[in-house]
Amino acid sequence: MIKFRLEERANSPYWLIILSPFIAILVAIILAGILIVLAGANPFQSYYQLIIGAFGSKNSVAETLARATPIILTGLAASIAFRAKFWNIGAEGQLYFGALATTFFGTGLVVLPSILMIPFLFIMGALAGGLLLLPLVLLKLYYKVDEVVTTLLLNFVVVLLVSYLLEGPWKDPMSLGWPQGKSVIEEGVLPQILSKTRLHLGFIISIFFAFSIWFILSKTVIGYRIKSVGLNAAAASHAGVPIFKTVLVVALLSGGMAGMAGVTETAGLKGYLTLDLSPGFGYAGIAVAMLANLNPIGVIFSGVFLASIYVGADAMSRAMNVPTYLADVIVALTVLCILLSLVFVHYKILFFGAKKYD
Amino acid sequence: MTTLLKVEKITKKFGNLYANDQISFEVKKSEVLAILGENGAGKTTLMNILFGHYTPDSGNVNFEGNAIEFGNTNNAIKLGIGMVHQHFTLAENLTALENIIIGRQSIFSLTLPKRNARVKILELSKKFGLPIDPDELVANLSVSEKQRIEILKTLFLDCKLLILDEPTAALTPQETDALFSTIRNMIKTGLSVILISHKLNEILAVSDRIIVLRNGSSVGEIDTNSTDREKIAEMIVGKKIDYPKKTKIPKKSKVLSLIDVSYKKPDAPNLSKVNLDLYGGQILGIAGVAGNGQTTLAKILSGHFKPTQGKIIFEEAKSVHTSPKSFMDLGVAYIPEDRNSDGIVGDMEIWENAIMTEMDDPFLRNSLGIINKKTSFDRSENLCETYDVRMQSIRQRSRLLSGGNVQKLLLGRWLMRKPKIIIACQPTRGLDEGAIASIQKLLLEAQQNGSAIILISEDLDELLTISDDISVMYKGMLSNPTESSSTNKLSIGLQMAGDGFL
Amino acid sequence: MIEFIEIIFTAGFWAATIRIACPLILATIGEVLCERAGVLNLGIEGIMSIGAMVGWMTVFLGADLYTGILAALIIGGIFGLIHAIFTVYLGASQHVTGIGITMLASSLGFFCFKLILPASTTPPKIKPFQPIDIPFLSELPFLGPAFFQHTPFTYLAILVVIFAFWLMNSTPLGLSIKMAGENPMALEAQGIDVFLVRTIAVVLGSALMAVGGAYLTLSAFDAFYFGMINGRGWIAIALVIFASWKPERALMGALLFAGLDAYQVRAQQLAGAIIPYQFFLMLPFLLSIVAMVIAAKRTRYPKALLIPFRRGERH
Q1: Is A167 inside any structural domain?
Q2: Could B102 and C179 be called an inter-chain contact, meaning their C-beta atoms sit closer than 8 Å?
Q3: Mean pLDDT over residues A58-75, rounded?
Q4: CA A184 to CA A108: how far, in whole Å?
Q5: C101-130 in b/e burial notation, b at 16+ Cβ within 10 A?
Q6: Which domains are seen in chain B, by residue range?
Q7: Domain containing A98: what range?
Q8: How many C-beta neighbours within 10 Å does residue C311 have?
């Protein structure tokens, strides 16, 4: 039997660090290509269609960037949390909570001029996302209740809550029976930034937050504390880093980012709340964060990449008759390949047989 | 006498470091071979190779004439080699019996022959004087009981060669004596033992032959009868170590007292009614067998745990909020027991670790919380220079530092703050002699500067030479301090086993 | 108000409890095996989903029901093996691997379903397992219809609990699994391959999860829907903690949980007009969180859970 051992590299070569995500993506695309062949289509043609669908025209580029907007924000949510080893898998629920806040405050309850109304909605969305996470953080800190499971479970609760509100008290009477919320007032709607497309201000805002989070994480005491808590919470605590406060900040930032993704979708893309507001943006954020190696600037690029897969896959599906679920398969494969590449970046694999000495 | 084990030119590298360099020796039947050497000399690596945990880069090992297959623990066990690791390899969620019998059948076997095993274990336990209860959960056992199980594990396998890696590290002097009489029993029945240690006295008492390792190479082989302490000590270290001299200074004013402090929670060993007074310029040593509450006490003194009862009184503050940060602000410095998992953030750079305690210093950050890298780098360089932390660059990842340098970094980080109270848990454990001397020197300097120090250690020699007074912890109780000049190892050992506690 | 109490005295309630409990029992036992060996398997939700799809599809394409179970078992084992290669052999993050496996297994399942049945708007049906009456016992009043008129798959699930209990407590493998999750070094020192033990546990555990998923399409219902797992995997993970990693307690936990679920469905019919149905549907998830909080005080995680074992690592 071949035996092997992983030996940690003291220093990983730079080319390997930079190249590894691209290799991972390539491997994921090749593996998904096998599925395309199984579906009876030509993989090269299919991927061509995918690229055209995502970047082939002004409209499709705009669509891709619009789709990237919430994914970048949920990607930031995951990046911040995972850096502190706080496993917030609840971005989906926090996104919907942000959307609920937008609907609550943005459909007439508060009326402000646009310049104030839009920041106000973002703040409310962020607060809602953060607040949803708060009880779970406290359960973790006080009772050591595992946050992975609680954040996952709460996603389902929030979606049911949204369903209740949209079918009941918050249902828009003008919606002809569809369960959807009232429209966000004009002052709150995020303006288009590319005419005749669905690309809206939210994209710029998400990039702004990517840079802000990058700044916080790499230049400030808070970022430094988050890093130390993530890498070795016990040692950090012995050196006087306030664990409780740091985890709380992480949770509020992380939940806040995801909550704002709900704002961009409600006040930007759709204009109102629906039950299918997010086709899994919260989970996509995890893939985005992993692909970017938890780097906030990297999240912008990986977010656009993932969005292009989703948008392009729709076009490809129509042209080539390959089920759209291929996009989800590619994303999932990318996550696993990235994990694999991280192992190779940090470890050398040494093989050795069972030698006999006589 | 026949040769049991023959080791030829074993070499093992970790990265660029030779952990073992061309080591050769033999073990005969019915003898105790001691392998001596300071921490990091390569003893444990060598034993891990014999036992099949590591694969050497070159060399041969023969056992009763058969070549052993490297990297295969199972093969070593089958040949009759048994090993008791320094850190016990027991699963606490299983019983003693289960820990012993696991691995004796294929994992695909459908039955677990517990009954026969119990009979054999009880026989062995009687024969070698190793009393245990086979059906007790390991989690409920004391350190010496766990060690007995480890030894029984190897005897159960009918081992011919038993390797004991630092077996006395956590035992009281009396428990050590009991272990040695067990070893002598084993030798009589034809077993051979390899004893690894850095404690000279013990080796001289029990071994037949001694091999000394230094920096990965064998530097000599002697019959125990034909040598003495000084000669071996010189071989072990290779150069003269400048051990710090203690000068006693008069106690200053009281800085801290504990009044009837108890801790009763399931997450750590409990404390009951601990009383303690600590004065500036005093080093109070705390002895005790691991797991008797020393760590809990340290965590209470550093603000990590809140006592469930009793009072902590700092002379300078009326009341204090329980958190590491507020204790730090009162001048408490805490050197945790496990420097790698609790002391340093291995994946952060040296400078980041160096300033971790200083995040409130306006010189290192502005009011918006933005870190000033320039001043932070300067501060870290300064720290490393002052406390002799040897490294290539402060931008290096901290995990690449040696144990001694990690400890100097951690201690230096606190000393920069001029702490009033230092809680040092096992500060020299696992370090080489040179590093031990420098850490002890730093502690003594801090004492001269008026700091009060609580030194928690399992090394009785260290406690007796460094501290002014010594208290002993037993089952969560703390004895009244005795002056270290008026006590000795034997009486501390008795106290560690419960003598004098109600 | 008396109606709300009468619910528990109907045989239908007890029969439903067992039906609801079965997939949870299988999934929870599967997760117990993984976690006891030191591996958190967050792939559970996806593995249940693809197990449900593959089991159903096998039968839909003409095989018999038992072959369907076998197919689910195999696909679960395959995903378990992938999980084990990542987390056991390569030591990758168990959290991210699990999420990745969940994403991959469920999307791959959906993809294949759409590939084979591209046009179906209403999901096609199969003839699922039928209840069998256990001789004599099934004729008992109340007890008969409650406990002895279930499908063979249901009895199989109960057998799995007995099997798991025996495995964990009376075999060398079970002992090794428990040791692998507590102190893997100890296991290696006894000459047992830690990687192998952990891999066996994860593969076996994942296979059981997939069979739990297949219970839904082969016994509880007769068709495959997207999203039909609906968080059952996550609930199972909460149940593992509630059950203190013990198979027999997992059975009790799943039954208790299913009982509450069966009760709420019936209560909903009585109170549906007053309380919107969504709140009843939230209950299982909220209950799971509450169960974790209750268990938190006495929780003692397997010590080596989440920690990769690396052979020959320097300490």
Answers
A1: yes
A2: yes
A3: 96
A4: 8
A5: bbbbbbbbbbbbbbbeeeeeeebeebebbe
A6: 3-237 (3.40.50.300), 254-342+419-496 (3.40.50.300), 345-400 (no CATH)
A7: 21-348
A8: 19
C101-149 pLDDT, tens digit per residue, is 999 999 999 999 999 988 767 778 899 999 888 888 887 887 878 788 8
The shortest CB-CB distance from B112 to any of C172, C186, C191 is to C172
Which pLDDT does position A2 carry in this prediction?
A: 54
The alpha carbon of residue B139 and the mean position of all alpha carbons in its chain are separated, in whole angstroms, by: 20
Chain B hits for C196, CB-CB cut-off 8 Å, are: 107
Strand partners, B425: B456
Question: Is there a contact between A242 and B365 if contact means CB atoms under 8 Å apart?
Answer: no
Contact between chains at A221 and B365 (C-beta distance less than 8 A): yes
Cα nearest neighbour of B340 on chain C: C315
Say yes or no for a CB contact (<8 Å) between A232 and B341: yes
- Per-residue pLDDT, averaged over A72-79, amounts to 97
Q: Is B137 touching C (CB cutoff 8 A)? A: no
Residue A147 lies in a domain: yes
Q: Indicate yes or no: CB of B91 within 8 angstroms of CB of C178.
A: yes
Residue of A nearest to C85 (CA): A340
In a domain, A1, yes or no: no
Q: In C, which residues are within 8 Å of B103 by CB distance?
A: 172, 176, 187, 190-192
- Residue-wise pLDDT for B407-438, tens only, equals 999 999 999 999 999 999 999 988 888 888 89
pTM to 2 decimal places = 0.91
Average of pLDDT values for C81-107?
95
Model confidence over C32-61: pLDDT tens digits? 999 999 999 999 999 999 999 999 999 999
- The whole-angstrom distance between C91's CA and the closest CA on chain A is 8
| Mean of pLDDT values over A49-63 | 94
User: Amino acid letter at C248?
Assistant: E
% of chain B residues with pLDDT over 70 = 100
In this structure, are residues B371 and A243 in contact, taking their beta carbons and an 8 Å threshold? no
Residue A94 has a pLDDT of 97
pLDDT number for residue A352: 61
Phi and psi at C57, nearest 5°, equal -65, -40
- The CATH number given to whatever domain includes residue A340 is 1.10.3470
Q: Please state the rounded mean pLDDT for residues B376-393.
A: 92
Q: Which residues of A touch C282 (CB under 8 A)?
A: 156-157, 160-161
Number of A/B CB contacts below 8 angstroms equals: 83
CATH no. for residue C178? 1.10.3470.10
Distances (CA, A) of B197 to B61, B168, C173, C262: 22, 8, 36, 64
The model's pLDDT over B259-309, given as tens digits with 9 standing for 90+, comes to 999 999 888 899 999 999 999 999 999 999 888 999 999 999 999 999 999
Q: Which residues on adjacent β-strands are paired with residue A4?
A: A351
pLDDT classification of C277: cutoffs 50, 70, 90: confident
**Strand, helix or coil for residue B386:** helix
pLDDT, mean over chain B: 89
Q: Looking at the predicted structure, is the pLDDT value of residue B467 above 50?
A: yes
What is the domain count for chain C?
1
Judge contact between A175 and A271, C-beta under 8 A.
Answer: no
Work out the minimum CA distance from B398 to partner chain A, whole angstroms: 11
Query: Parallel, antiparallel, or unpaired for β B332-335 and B421-425?
Result: parallel
Contact criterion met (CB < 8 Å) for C173 and B71: no
| Through-space distance between the first and last CA atoms of chain B, rounded to whole angstroms | 51
Q: Tell me the chain C residues in contact with residue A148 when contact means C-beta distances shorter than 8 Å.
A: 40, 42, 95, 237
Inform me whether the pLDDT recorded for C27 exceeds 50: yes
Q: Is the ipTM of this complex over 0.90?
A: yes
Read off the tokens for B91.
């699963």
Smallest Cβ–Cβ distance between A235 and the set B323, B325, B342 belongs to B342
Q: Is residue C282, in this structure, part of any structural domain at all?
A: yes
Residue with the two structure tokens 């390997």: A16
When divided into structural domains, chain A yields a total of 1
- CB distance C103–A287 less than 8 Å? yes
